[in-house]
Amino acid sequence: MGNLLIIDDNPSIHATLEIVLEPYFDTIKSLEDPLQIMRTLAVEDFHVVLLDMNFSPGLNTGAEGVRWLKKIKETYPNVSVVMMTAYGHVELAVETLKIGASDFILKPWDNRKLLATVQSALQLSESKGEIQQLKTKAKALRKEENAFPEIIGESAVVKNMLSLIAKVGKTDTNILITGENGTGKELVAKALHHYSKRNQEQLVEVDMGAVSETLFESELFGHVKGAFTDAHQDRIGKFELANKGSLFLDEIGNLSFSLQAKLLAALQNRQITKVGGNKVIPIDIRLISATNKNLFKMVEDEEFRQDLLYRLNTIQIEVPALRDRGDDVILLANHFKDLLAQKYDKGTLKFTASAEEKLMSYHWPGNIRELQHTIERAVILVDGNEITPDLIVTSASENTNVKTLNLAQTEEVLIKKALKKHPHNISAAADELGVTRQTLYNKLKKLGLS
Ligand SMILES: Nc1ncnc2c1ncn2[C@@H]1O[C@H](COP(=O)(O)OP(=O)(O)OP(=O)(O)O)[C@@H](O)[C@H]1O
């Protein structure tokens, strides 16, 4: 239900419309004089306006209706305006659709058609209101969570990346962010949005790996009520939600081949149609995508559409792996240590020199996310204020199966295996590893295991 405002200089039209439409609205108000429109809309909430096109006696060009339509839409874009006109003026009525009218009805009207038109205008106004609400909510949240993420790092590779982000962030170019898991791709997407002209609008994120084949279109493009069994009400898709803002398609490499075609069509046409709907909705978005996969290789293997890849990667930003960021490991480790020490009320903590050495020598396959978890564990477990190497427990230290070809990691895994097999017997462990006792001691020291 909603509120309806009728504007027509003929009172008998008011009475007839009110009788037909009364069961479908909470409130109906009728005005004869269009000069009262703006005042009325300013004090009461209306969802639909039924607007006649001619008011002054002798004038039937429709120009008055057009002027009032423009005025209403300028101040109240979420209100649906349905124009009322006589049969001879269909062309003019069609023109009003271009300037924001939702629909028109011809006088004399057919009651069923009138009802259908007014009801869909009401639905449209409700969904516009919903988008507005979601956007306002998101805006408030964005302010709270401090929109600009801090990307910590002073290494040359990170500095290069930051200056590229600042440069291309301002443009509307499509950007593909690549990099291993946990390198900070999502953070880069947020920074790009922050630098863009669109930063007052939303950055809408979709995890493409998590969208099911059947719900893909509904999730991205939305659906209308009744489009399928579970479509109990209209739904706004992510594309529409991101309109005027940025759309972040994360894990784009996980999108199935058939869905890639549907995504490409929407990106190419810059418009969408809701599932079960027939209205074409123009979309103005800045596209940011991310993946940890090699999309060029996937194109070669016919797993990813080349035309889609070219649309996504006007600019590509490669986020460096943590192991390639030099001393940033210590910078980041200290950053997380301080944050987490505060969170767990641990006072001031510091890493011992050998703990720092261990942090630097590890190859961080899970990148910054792994570093963050490792530090969190150390902060939770530490007694006193020094974090020693034994508290730095990485995924490789917990895992005694060799799943990687990385030498440093493999060495650490094999040493742990040997120690497990020969507890308290360094000589036997060294023998098993084919090194001298001294070499094993040195390695244990470096790994913080001695
Ligand atoms: N340079 C950085 N400075 C501070 N924190 C960072 C930095 N890079 C990443 N992080 C933090 O590391 C974690 C992982 O980052 P993020 O989720 O952006 O990685 P991702 O590449 O998107 O990961 P995935 O590929 O698994 O989705 C997050 O908590 C993020 O805040």
TrEMBL record:
Gene Ontology terms, MF aspect: ATP binding; sequence-specific DNA binding
Keyword Protein biosynthesis: no
Modified residues (4-aspartylphosphate): D52
Record's keyword terms, sorted: ATP-binding, DNA-binding, Nucleotide-binding, Phosphoprotein, Transcription, Transcription regulation
Ranges where the Sigma-54 factor interaction domain occurs: 151-380
Keyword set includes Nucleotide-binding: yes
GO BP field: phosphorelay signal transduction system; regulation of DNA-templated transcription
Response regulatory domain location: 3-122
The protein's name: Sigma-54-dependent Fis family transcriptional regulator
Organism in which the protein naturally occurs: Flammeovirga aprica JL-4
